[in-house]
Amino acid sequence: MNMSEKRGNVWVFVEQEAGKIASVSLQLVSKGRELADRLGVKLEAVFLGDKLENAVPELFHYGCDKVFLAEDPRLEPFTVLPYAKVIMDLIRAHKPNILLFGATLKGRELAPRVASEKLAGLTADCTDLQIDDFEDKKNGKSYTDKLMQIRPAFGGNIIATIVNTWDDPQMVTVREGVMKLGEPDTSRTGEIEKVDVALTEAETVIKVLERVRADKEVDLQGAQIIVAGGYGVGSKENFKLIYDLAEALGGEVGASRAAVDAGWISHDYQIGQTGVTVRPRLYIACGISGSIQHRAGMAESKKIIAINTDPDAPIFSCAHYAIVGDLNTVIPQMIKAFKSKQ
Amino acid sequence: MSKKVLVFVKQVPDTQNITGDAMTPEGTVNRAALPAIFNPEDLNALELALQLKERYGVHVTVATMGMPAAAEVLRASLYRGADRAILLTDRALAGADTLATSYALSCCVKKLGDIDLVLCGRQAIDGDTAQVGPQIAEKLAIPQLCYVEEVKDLAEKTITVRRAIEGGYEILEAPMPALLTVIDANDPRPMNAHNIMRFKNARTKSEVARPAGQTPLTPEETAAGVAELERAGLLIEEWSAADVNAAPDRIGFAGSPTKVKQVMSVVLTASEAKQIEPTQAGINELIHELISDHTLG
After folding, report:
1. Domain count of chain A?
2. What is d(CA B81, CA B45) in angstroms, rounded to the nearest whole number?
3. pTM metric for this prediction
4. Residue of A104, A109, A125 to mutate when probing chain B, most B C-beta within 10 A
5. Mean pLDDT of each 10-residue bin along chain A, 342 residues long
6. To the nearest whole angstrom, how far is the Cα of A187 from the nearest Cα of chain B?
7. In terms of domains, do A89 and A153 share one?
8. Are residues A51 and A171 in the same domain?
């Protein structure tokens, strides 16, 4: 990079549904603040939709210096082509250094469309971001203060650090739940720049004929205690045990992919690489063998209790407390023990 | 005239069933130790295309970019009912990230010329990025419909699909040509015995030139073999980067903006787990400890 050239700012694409900002976007604003401070640049949000002004202050509270606000009826509900057009126009005008997206369905559809047009590198599903220097031994070039884009690869069996060596922005999608949410400061304010939404017919060809959605049944990312059941629970009926323990401890219920695939519980509850990533204060894994994909979604929990009849289950390798036993007897014992201690 | 559908498929290492010897002591992946499989969601994309063939009489071409051995997934596609198969293979394509990959594949679509629909699986299990589909669509300047579960209607100029969104679904309509990424929402059909008999000898030029377990053929013998396969309708077309007019600086390692700085095997955060007896006394002690340190309470 030419050091006399002013470095661009850090941007976060802020996702919303009916004006409510997605939790992953606030997590990215928190992380983006950290990156911007480290680089000595501003943190700016790119916020698209219609009638969003009431939601903007929250972005300042979590650390944004400025919000690019694009409001237009054609940006509601989300469709990929107009969103990509507005973001590309903003990138061309302002040349950000870094652009973060949540690795949600929307983010993973939108980010590659933008990266392809910008001819920028894009790394999917990052679980960590750092700033560091990079020496490209193959082409003999060195780079200062680049974004280290850290992600699991190969089904979660390896962790790769990726660097974008072409023109900015350095683009990534980041998994939900992996970046810590900062403390909001309600006295913080910032600048709003209203964006002129310039769309042509080419960007409005996709028609939404019908749209059916409901909020998730459960907010696992915000849960402090999670009791998760796996294939070892044995049946849909037996999942009652998991609910009972969660209720007794004041926690939420989660599940492994095997339990979801068996049809015992809905996908909203799935924890792991293809579900949500959680980091609660306490995670109790009941009858979960602990595939690498599951551990990727919960290994950062502060305390992990694993209950499994198989002493060699991989889940024990990331547990703090190992209970080799039958969940059908251990869970009632836990409920009894907790109730008698209170 | 019947519509033309192109399905992009990929041969991938089976990362979902990794065994011990797949990881080297240095923490890198020993690809050779992993079985190569048909990327699961690409089978869903192929299934969707074959359903369109049954419902609307579309013509289904399957293409893949990969090593010569990737011809295996093309044969598997012919066995299921695809009409035409193309292998894009070239050393110059190696080391491609998603941007360089999508560029090369978009060149393939341009070379074919009259494609109405491009179908891809949402993502491949070796990278899980889900980026190549949308990037091909952008390079072709056509609409993308992602996370498609089913095609509701294929009209003269438009396609209507049902696709997944966070917490629900949408019915979307788009003009063609369009690109669809398909999720695991259908049951891919098994290979058809009649098609296996018909296509079991389908080969690429590379496979003709280097028959498994035999000495390589001379160029003359290869040309004769290829001509014979072509007459029998059994030639799997093999294209190079030059064949699809791909710019050398946009493909492979040179065309990839992202570089891998470091790769590490997953280190378990495991401290030694404390063993708790599965008895009421053991559980009481555990709960007491968790209440004392304010984990519970």
Report:
1. 2
2. 13
3. 0.88
4. A109
5. 71 96 96 98 98 97 98 97 98 97 97 97 95 89 94 82 91 92 95 96 96 86 92 96 94 95 92 88 95 90 95 92 96 94 72
6. 31
7. yes
8. yes
